[in-house]
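Late entry, evening session. Most of the bench is empty. Finally got around to the prediction I had been postponing all week. Sequence below, unchanged from the version circulated by S.P.
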Amino acid sequence: MKKLTNTSRLYYHYLRRTGLFSFLAQNLMKLGIFIAVFLVVGFFISKYVITTEEIFKLIVQNTESWAVFLFFTVSETILGLIPPDLFIMWTKTEADAIGVNPWLLLSLLASLSYIGGVLAYYIGKLLAGMPKVHFWVTKKYKDLFMKFKKWGGFLIVVAALLPIPFSIVTLISGVSGFSSKRLLTLGLFRYIRFFAYALVLFLLV
């Protein structure tokens, strides 16, 4: 027990010294700013232009569900640059339109995001065997590679929960030879992100 405590204390100091906690604080601040801006802009658009509900009703009426889910999966696999929050809000309107529980569609959305991250991981493993592509990826995402080298699985958890491209981090973990079992386990934090955000975003639709 004493050995475990000492190891944990040393690991804590290592993470603090290498900047994980400041990195986490910065991203939490970005998240807070994003939510605040999103709410303010959403309020003015809903009041003076068109309501959020009407926007998503137009999407539901003009787009097939499978097309939205497919587009979301591709986004979550390749770049992950489109905020999943918009899709979370869409599931609420879509569920109301087809008469199903919105949390059921949200579970499907979270699962597709998780699968997208796993697919990105295996794409990363393939890229690791292609020297020229490997070099390009490591150069383009040099900063994230350095962070992953320092923090490993902690960066996967942070990316799963906060607005950091989840698929890019899992791709980097694949390129870096990270354990697939640990990736599959840590990636489950993605579900927490979707359900926690939905508790707030569902109120806006």
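Two things to note before I forget:
The chain has one domain: 51-204.
Residues 20-48 form the longest helix (29 residues).
Will write this up properly tomorrow.
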